[in-house]
Amino acid sequence: MHEPFRNEPFTDFSLAENVSAFRAALEKVQAQCGGTFPHVIQGEEEHSDQHFPSVNPADPQEIVGHFSDGDASVADRAIDAASTAFEEWQYTPVAERAEYLFQAAAEMRRRKHEFSATMVLEVGKNWAEADGDTAEAIDFLEYYARQMLRIADSSDQLVEYEGENNSLYYIPLGVGAVIPPWNFPNAIACGMTAAALVAGNTVVIKPAEQSPWIAYKICELFWQQGLPAGVLNYITGPGEVVGARMVEHPETRFVVFTGSREVGTEIYAKTANVEEGQRWLKRAILEMGGKDAILVDETADLAAAAEGIVTSAFGFQGQKCSACSRAIIVEQVYDEVQRLVLEKSQVLLMGAPEKGNEITVGPVVDRDALRKISGYLEIGRSEGELLLGGNAADADEEGYFVEPTIFGRVDGNARIAQEEIFGPVLALVPTKDFDEGLAIVNSTEYGLTGALYSQDPARLKRARREFHVGNLYFNRKCTGALVGLQPFGGFNMSGTDSKAGGPDYLLLFTQAKSIAERLPA
Question: Is the entire prediction scored with pTM above 0.85?
């Protein structure tokens, strides 16, 4: 019997022993850099003639690993292997499947700093952000294992009927295409995979091209627990080739994806097509980003609001789908909130995260991200007043750094207030009152996260009804959802309303089977 679920604590980097332990993990991971990694299909390594590099975005000359550049045939072989493995894996007892997750959680906890250090090097997370990412991955493993044990046999939820024995079971779907993002490369990749596996499905995972190494370590962690061959298959390559084939393959039963709106809507459309030989309607579990807002009214604790805005806007360089990219501020307190936000932002320290835990702002993930964000910096100069930052590195040798940037007095309909930027760019939007501010909040096509800073009970009550996001926070930052406490997922173009880390998430990876047995008289 396992104890009730508890969230994994974060590492306290104010303690010297924790700093030393993390530095040792960084040294260990740095010594592993430069290796060559294969596809793993049916438990066997497949080496490709062509490879692509994964680089340290703080120092793009440093290659953390070389990864096989797959094609559609690789996806076909992996899905065939997963389909064969499903024939037996689907009947593995739920308790046994859950135990794989419990064991993986214990091992990740033991090697916690190693997983976090890998993200510091591969995607440029600072120490605290990487540590939080790994803690969330552990939480997903622990939580989903317990949830599957809870829901597998739900017969006790049925009403009694004389003369019949009625049962309700949640059974697996089949082969899942797992396509995780680079921005939470441990937590989301691990959570998607764990949910699919513990529900009795088999998996083909294709990580984002920017973060294949941490995904390989996650798979390796599962394989080391003794998963049968073919239950979890790892392949790499371009999303438009390998990922597209995974989505279209007739043996794929469901697709779980986190990433851009553009790719997510393409997947949604493709899963709606019934391919030749396909015997089911594919399920799409999608999370596609946001244009998240923090609304501050004249009754708010302004210092707390400014702290929440800065933390939400610039944590992991604004590369979170939950990041605050719009602060909508009632005019009466706008100037004071702007002053406090600038004051708190000016002390952020930008640099290569591997240098130490004092670094708060690292690089953006790659040159494409740098280029896109730079374009929005130019747009912002014409749409608002540049208050801070506005500069980006212009060469691979310098690392992919973008200064934390704030534009003031931006119109709520401006592009930088409507379009997802996915970088450290914040628009301060003045509004005449709470009513207008709430309308601006709901004016984008997204609906993922948001926060309201207010001491007015009536406004808090109204926001519960009208602030249209999947994750709403009062008088706190709009990032940092915790598994089991704030199930995560949004509305509209933010995704399919799935709630990762919530009590109903695993239902998306299962199908319900009702059995009625007439009892003898």
Answer: yes
